[in-house]
UniProtKB/TrEMBL annotation:
<dbReference type="InterPro" id="IPR001610">
    <property type="entry name" value="PAC"/>
</dbReference>
<dbReference type="Pfam" id="PF13426">
    <property type="entry name" value="PAS_9"/>
</dbReference>
<dbReference type="InterPro" id="IPR036513">
    <property type="entry name" value="STAS_dom_sf"/>
</dbReference>
<dbReference type="InterPro" id="IPR035965">
    <property type="entry name" value="PAS-like_dom_sf"/>
</dbReference>
<feature type="domain" description="PAC">
    <location>
        <begin position="99"/>
        <end position="149"/>
    </location>
</feature>
<protein>
    <submittedName>
        <fullName>Histidine kinase</fullName>
    </submittedName>
</protein>
<dbReference type="InterPro" id="IPR000700">
    <property type="entry name" value="PAS-assoc_C"/>
</dbReference>
<dbReference type="Pfam" id="PF01740">
    <property type="entry name" value="STAS"/>
</dbReference>
<feature type="domain" description="STAS">
    <location>
        <begin position="155"/>
        <end position="266"/>
    </location>
</feature>
<dbReference type="InterPro" id="IPR051932">
    <property type="entry name" value="Bact_StressResp_Reg"/>
</dbReference>
<dbReference type="InterPro" id="IPR000014">
    <property type="entry name" value="PAS"/>
</dbReference>
<keyword id="KW-0808">Transferase</keyword>
<dbReference type="InterPro" id="IPR002645">
    <property type="entry name" value="STAS_dom"/>
</dbReference>
<dbReference type="GO" id="GO:0016301">
    <property type="term" value="F:kinase activity"/>
</dbReference>
<keyword id="KW-0418">Kinase</keyword>
């Protein structure tokens, strides 16, 4: 079919009447759009790469010729391959669009990068295939890790008050994540400070549950192994009740009413 164009009102060429763009023209236009996209775009079928745009080749650090024909699964870590295989199967057999996921892929030079992956079924010519969009999120993830590191430092403020004595005030919600965070960070923070006593003030903790009771018991055991005597202040009755309900023995934990009383006792 011959395609005829005419000038539109804005001087732009438009299709006249019922003339349609041929399948070949559509594919050529689509490929041109994708080729100049900044997004890494890969089209694959039965695990074999059929097409990759220039951004994708740049991202994978290899010429297109060495990527086309390769096995798409070779990009993924062994731990992720089963998940990716099932995802591809559902795309191909059940025509299900794959949801956006975060994973890691290998570039052709062996470097590992964190990515977002989105895929959906397409036709590449006459071949039923999958188009995958890959976004490099390594810089974003690194920024998030650095931010979390800063937050962790701020949320575990170890305050030296006298020779061999420091205070750690805990404020806010103590959930499983934060408990593990303190358990991991605190031994590193006290290292090299020559502490003999550590006062942990729990009066600012919002929640008192089994997680908190377990945390207090574990951190006491860790500090004892490090040769540091732990004193809890601001210990409210409801925490003791929760500990008993959880079957946690906290009779060995040393407590004082507040930080001032703990310091006075240590100075005397």
């Amino acid at each position: 079919m011959k395609t005829i164009y005419e000038k539109g009102s804005g001087g732009v060429e438009q299709l006249r009447g019922n003339d349609e763009i041929s399948v070949i023209q559509k594919e050529a236009m689509y490929q041109q759009i994708v080729e100049y996209s900044f997004e890494t775009t890969v089209i694959h079928s039965r695990h074999k790469v059929l097409y990759i745009n220039q951004s994708g080749a740049d991202f994978l650090r290899a010429p297109k010729e060495s990527i086309i024909g390769a096995n798409i699964l070779d990009l993924f870590m062994n731990d992720y391959k089963d998940i990716i295989v099932e995802r591809i199967r559902r795309n191909e057999e059940e025509n299900i669009v794959g949801q956006l996921i975060e994973t890691k892929v290998y570039r052709m030079d062996g470097t590992l990068v964190e990515v977002e992956l989105y895929c959906h079924p397409v036709y590449f010519g006459e071949t039923k295939a999958i188009q995958s969009i890959v976004r490099d999120i390594t810089p974003r993830k690194e920024a998030q890790r650095k931010l979390r590191q800063v937050i962790d430092e701020v949320s575990i403020p170890l305050v030296p008050v006298l020779d061999g004595i420091a205070v750690l005030p805990l404020v806010g919600m103590m959930d499983q994540y934060r408990s593990e965070q303190v358990l991991d960070s605190l031994p590193k923070k006290v290292q090299g400070r020559h502490l003999t006593h550590l006062i942990i003030d729990v009066s600012g903790i919002y929640n008192f549950d089994e997680v908190v009771a377990q945390f207090l018991y574990r951190i006491n055991a860790i500090m004892r192994l490090l040769g540091i005597t732990l004193i809890y202040t601001g210990f409210r009755p409801e925490l003791a009740q929760k500990a008993v309900q959880a079957g946690i023995e906290i009779s060995s934990v040393k407590t004082m009413t507040n930080v001032k009383m703990a310091l006075r006792m240590l100075m005397e």
